[in-house]
Design a protein that fits this description.
alpha+beta
């Protein structure tokens, strides 16, 4: 779990990474933010289709930040 808190729910967001990109996701309301690691298209693609985040987590392309 990360130190990031959801601005809406005020609960901790869960952090995921692929080593270059990092995403912090609130599983209660679905809000997310992230660090693109110098890849501006990563966040753009997530914003176009947010459900891809869950697919990436399920396929273990994004793993929990420890």
């Amino acid at each position: 779990m990360s130190d990031h808190k959801c601005t809406k729910c005020k609960i901790p967001k869960y952090g995921y990474t692929d080593g270059r990109h990092s995403i912090f996701l609130c599983f209660k309301c679905g809000r997310y933010d992230g660090i693109s690691g110098g890849d501006p298209t990563f966040i753009e693609e997530i914003n176009k289709e947010p459900m891809v985040l869950l697919a990436m987590i399920k396929e273990k392309l994004l793993v929990p930040i420890s």
